C-alpha cells in the first residue's frame, strides 16, 4: 500500500494514541486509518460529538500545516480521489477521506490537533455539510462578539449581549430593537449639530 501523498513510499504498520492501528508513511509521517480499524477503535471511545459552539472556543490552536496538505490524493486501498474536509484553525488544514471505503488520511500532526479539538472520535462529522455550515456560523458569531468587545469595551459589550438575549426571546423584541435604533441615531444626529 503506497502513501497517498508521497505516492512512492510504502505505508508501514503503526499505532496512534489509544491503540488505533494505522499505516504510516516513513517519509512524510502521515497516517492512513482504515475504516474498519477506525470503527473498531471508535466503538471503544466515549460517544461525544463536538458541537460547533464547543469547537469555536478551541480554534485558536497554532498549527504548522504540512506542505503536503494542499496535494490531492488517491485512496491507498481503492485508488479513488480522497474527499477533503477543512478544519478551520488560524492556519486551516484538510482531513482526507475516501468516499468509497471510508478510510481516513491525516497528514503529520493533524491527528494530534483533531484530538485536542475532540474531533478525533467523530471524524465523519467533519464531512457533513450541515455541521460545517454550523461551524462557520458559530465562527461568524464569535468574530462578531469579539468585535463588539473591542469597540464597546467589556462592560458595555456584556450589557449588549444580555439585552440581545432578552429581546430575542421576547415576542415583541423587534419593537424594542427599533426603539433602540431610533434612539441611538437620534442621539448621534444631535451630537453632530
Automatic annotation (TrEMBL):
List the InterPro entries: TF_Znf
Q: Where is the Transcription factor zinc-finger domain?
A: 2-42, 75-115
**Protein name in UniProt:** Zf-TFIIB domain-containing protein
* Origin species: Lusitaniella coriacea LEGE 07157
Q: What is the lineage of its organism?
A: Bacteria, Bacillati, Cyanobacteriota, Cyanophyceae, Spirulinales
Amino acid at each position: 500500500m503506497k502513501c497517498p501523498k508521497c505516492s512512492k513510499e510504502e505505508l508501514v504498520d503503526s499505532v496512534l494514541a489509544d491503540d488505533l492501528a494505522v499505516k504510516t508513511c516513513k517519509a512524510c509521517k502521515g497516517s492512513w486509518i482504515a475504516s474498519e480499524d477506525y470503527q473498531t477503535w471508535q466503538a471503544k471511545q466515549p460517544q461525544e460529538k463536538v458541537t460547533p459552539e464547543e469547537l469555536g472556543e478551541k480554534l485558536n490552536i497554532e498549527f504548522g500545516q504540512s506542505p503536503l496538505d494542499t496535494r490531492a490524493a488517491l485512496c491507498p486501498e481503492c485508488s479513488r480521489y480522497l474527499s477533503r474536509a477543512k478544519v478551520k484553525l488560524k492556519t486551516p488544514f484538510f482531513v482526507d477521506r475516501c468516499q468509497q471505503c471510508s478510510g481516513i488520511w491525516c497528514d503529520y500532526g493533524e491527528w494530534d490537533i483533531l484530538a485536542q479539538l475532540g474531533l478525533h472520535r467523530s471524524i465523519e462529522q467533519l464531512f457533513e455539510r450541515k455541521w460545517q455550515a454550523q461551524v462557520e456560523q458559530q465562527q461568524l458569531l464569535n468574530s462578531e462578539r469579539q468585535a463588539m468587545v473591542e469597540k464597546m469595551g467589556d462592560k458595555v459589550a456584556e450589557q449588549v449581549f444580555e439585552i440581545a438575549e432578552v429581546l430575542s426571546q421576547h415576542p415583541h423584541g423587534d419593537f424594542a430593537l427599533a426603539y433602540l435604533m431610533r434612539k441611538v441615531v437620534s442621539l448621534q444626529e444631535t451630537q453632530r449639530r
